[in-house]
Amino acid sequence: MDDRLEDPATSTKGQSAGLIYGTGAYLLWGLFPLFFWLLRDTPPLEILAHRVLWSAIGMTVVLLITRPGQRLRELLKNSTARNYLLLAAVVITVNWGMYIYAVTTDRVVEASLGYFINPLVTVLLGILVLGESLRRAQWLAMAIATVAVGIMTVDYGHPPWIALTLAFSFACYGYAKKKADMGAVVSLTFETLSIAPLAIIYLQFLSPGAKNTFFDQGIQHALLLVSTGVVTAVPLLLFGAAATRLSLTSLGILQYLGPVIQFVIGVWVLQEQMSALRWVGFALIWIALVIFTFEAIRQHRRTLLDAAQSAAL
Asked: Which of 9, 20, 183, 293 is the most buried (most CB within 10 A)?
């Protein structure tokens, strides 16, 4: 991890650039529903296969341009990092596929729920996998979020599987990427290239009777499928640039921008239905996130103060 991530001495100019990069990344992620909605008549698995394939091609080009030789050599020598990135490749493919399915089946609001609860699921993963302990405010946030998911379950008639799959898969992705620690370009290139052969096989041998819409619906449709690689890579690269210039606290606050935009698009642009219970569930999730965020900011400031006092001594 870059030392600048938590360095209070980071320049104002660097922080301003980081804010622009981070805002750009989350704005693009927030607008994803509008892009994938244009492909709603294409089977989700076909969209996913194209997204993996064109992302792999695009990231290979980026890798050749940026030439991160040291990181690449480290990856080739480090089997543990490769295994973590293989895990990352699997869970991000599940995440991408579920998100595409959500958008193309008019479940954008539920998809936004997944990214709202993702920070809380990440904390839960820390408890279960890393043995971390929670502070009192974090326990309160987790309890409120659990109640909210229970209310959503009553409203939907089943657990909100789309939201839970998106949240858990992205939390696992973050964990695997952190353990691999190979940098955004090298890691994403490795991940997409690992899954690309399966995408090619799927596109080459679609189920009997199925059509490959890439060739059947005109040049505009084909270009949309090709551009899935671009819309995948650009926000990730912007996020990588932001992560080296902003504190974790700033990134933590910015991350809510994406699901907020998705929620607005789902409710007011795509006109998805929101029952009274669903509004209650979302309100509880937002309350939990406010508690969680303020606790994270408070703890971050305390850590900086302790570090400053230790340095003074």
From this structure: 183
